[in-house]
Amino acid sequence: MKKVDYIVVGSGLAGIMFCDVLMQHGKTFLVVDDGSQKASIVAGGLYNPVVLKRFTPVWKSKEQLELAIPRYKALENKLNVRLDYKVPVYRLFATIEEQNNWFLASDKVGLSSYIKPEIHQIENKSIKSDFGFGKVLHTGRIDTKALITSFKKVLHDNNQLVETSFNYDAIQFNQDNITYNNIDVKHIVFAEGFGLKKNPFFKHLPLKETKGELLIIYAPKLNIDFVLKSSVFLIPLGAHKYIVGATYEWHDKSNNTTEAAKIELLNKLKIFINCDFQVVDQVAGIRPTVIDRRPLVGQHNKYKQLNVLNGLGTRGVMIAPYVAKRLYNLIENGIEIDSEININRFNN
User: Are 300 and 196 in contact (CB under 8 A)?
Assistant: First the structure.
């Protein structure tokens, strides 16, 4: 019988970053994944410490960034692939009121390090910018597709990736460990995204499936090298290509792209740019989100060998290294995790 310390179910961003922690600590593990979840692959990948809709700080943004940025750098070196693109984020103001709110926000605790009381003017005939821009500091984009593709190749080459659906009925509980399909394992971590809804051990958790769609456009006259936030995000990819996104759809649970989402994104884009462009691609995925906008992290009440790491939502690249480390420390060292992300908040 094969023995491993961990089985990780899912190879999206949550699963990959937990595997990264396991590798750092020399733990043995297998990853079981059927490729059904696409949210991390199609994500915009921004890390941005400011909620630009309301000008409020992201939860524990300082702690998240201090952990995440060095980890992505280490993974760049390990995988020999570029992941972290340092790119500023500019918020396009639509009114004088938004300008005033920006000045007020710059004095708030948790925001003063990331935004300054300045209105930037950027000369670009392709952007409608009567009221100027606010600049967010310490931002960038993680190429999540490159990260996951490269990391899974390492897993495959090391015979650590089992590409099949997980069979919950195959778990057998013993006194000190569990077995799964003739594998002796100490802990299982479910990082299966939207697939958690079918998990009999954690399906009670209030995970919401939110479909998101993105467009890729080719706009040779736009010429911006920063992320622009207005009615949608506009993220430069190089070679005059940009990500436009994203939509939020609560009813459609498929990974299929839709004409309705395309129209919605194009209508919002045309509010603030006035140059010609061409849509060259459209992608869709299901985000695992939670009603209180906090991840689902923790252990099963009865079966302590079973753990969950899910619900990263729209800010996955920032929070994934943080929650992965917190879960590992809970399992291995008994260090309690933040009450705001602990699944115990939903067990009452």
Answer: no
User: In this structure, are strands 171-173 and 178-180 parallel, antiparallel, or unpaired?
Assistant: antiparallel
Flag whether 220 is in a domain.
Answer: yes
Q: How does pLDDT run across 91-120, given as a tens digit for each residue?
A: 999 999 999 999 999 988 889 999 999 999
Does residue 190 share a domain with residue 298?
yes
DSSP for 227-282, written as a single string:
EEESSSEEEEEETTEEEEE---BSS--SS---HHHHHHHHHHHTTTB-S--EEEEE
Residue 59, both tokens: 């939860």
pLDDT tens digits, one per residue of 253-297: 788 999 999 999 999 999 999 999 999 999 988 888 898 889 999
Residues ≥6 apart with Cβ < 8 Å to 71: 17, 20, 321
For residue 298, report the phi and psi dihedrals to the nearest 5 degrees.
Answer: 150, -170
How many Å is the Cα radius of gyration of the chain?
21
Can you give the residue range of the structural domain that contains 37? 2-43+145-206+292-346
> Which residue type sits at 6?
Y
pLDDT tens column, 118-158: 999 999 999 999 999 999 999 999 999 999 999 999 999 99
If DSSP codes are grouped into helix, strand and coil, which group holds residue 319? Answer: helix
Pair (105, 216) in one structural domain: yes
Instruction: Answer yes or no: are the C-beta atoms of 131 and 93 closer than 8 Å.
Output: yes
CA dist., res. 65 & res. 343, Å (int): 23
Q: What residues does 307 pair with on adjacent strands?
A: 189, 299
The structure tokens listed for 176 are 């000190």
